[in-house]
Amino acid sequence: MDSAMLSKGVTLRGLEVFEALASSGSVALTATATGLSQPAVSQQLRNLETALGVDLIDHGKRPMQLTAAGRSFLARTTSVLSELRLAQSELTVMDLGHLSNLSIGIIDDFDNDLTPRLVTTLAENMQNCRFKMITASSIDITADMKAKRLHLGISASSGEVLDGVVEHPLVRDPFILVTPSEHTPRGGDLREAMRTLPFLRYERSQLISRQIEAHLSRMKLDIPERFEIGSHLALMACVARGIGWAITTPLGFMRATRFHDQVAAHPLPFAHFSRQISLYASMDWTDQVPRDVAQTVRHLVQDNIITPALRGHPFLEGELTVLTG
Question: What is the pTM of this model?
Answer without folding.
Answer: 0.70
